[in-house]
Amino acid sequence: MTRTLEWNVRVGLSEEDGTTRAEAVLDTGSGRVVGHGVARCNPQDVDIPVIGDELAASRAMKDVAVQLMKAADQELESAGAGPPSGPVAPPYAWSDTSV
Q1: pLDDT in tens, 2-11
Q2: Which residues on neighbouring strands pair with residue 38, listed in sequence order?
Q3: Distance (Å, whole) CA 9 – CA 47
Q4: Cα 26 to Cα 60: distance, rounded to the nearest angstrom
Q5: What does the alpha-carbon distance between residue 73 and residue 60 come to, in Å, rounded to a whole number?
Q6: Could you count the other beta carbons within 10 Å of the beta carbon of residue 35?
Q7: Could you count the other beta carbons within 10 Å of the beta carbon of residue 20?
Q8: Do 37 and 61 meet the contact criterion of CB atoms below 8 Å apart?
Q9: How far does Cα 21 stand from its chain's mean position?
Q10: What digits encode the pLDDT tens for the residues 57-95?
């Protein structure tokens, strides 16, 4: 089976008083996943807005990624392809320690 899809992500950012908030919206064409992220500037640090934007946006996109992974895990399990019971061997090569 061959198929091609395009999913679009929109990230909105707002900043007020050293706090940057981000909302990432993934549109799959058949549904939406919304993630949120926040970054706060330490009062002793120099305020560099682009850093807050990057941190908040990355956290919002990570939130979307975690939600997608949970949905995929649930769908795998309902299809009978869930994780094996018992201890799971460590992965070969680099693991994804951020999830």
Answers
A1: 999 999 999 9
A2: 21
A3: 27
A4: 11
A5: 20
A6: 22
A7: 23
A8: yes
A9: 14
A10: 999 999 999 999 999 888 888 888 766 665 666 665 555
Find out whether 3 and 40 touch, Cβ atoms under 8 Å: no
Give the Cα separation of 13 and 34 in Å (integer): 13
Tell me the whole-structure pTM to 2 decimals.
0.78
**Tokens representing residue 17 in the block:** 């008083």
Q: Say if CB 62 and CB 7 are below 8 A apart.
A: no
CB atoms under 10 Å from CB of 70, counted, come to 11
Model confidence at 99: pLDDT above 50: no
Q: Write out pLDDT tens, residues 19-53.
A: 999 999 999 999 999 999 999 999 899 889 999 99
* Total residue count of the chain as it appears in this document: 99
Tell me the three state secondary structure of residue 76.
helix
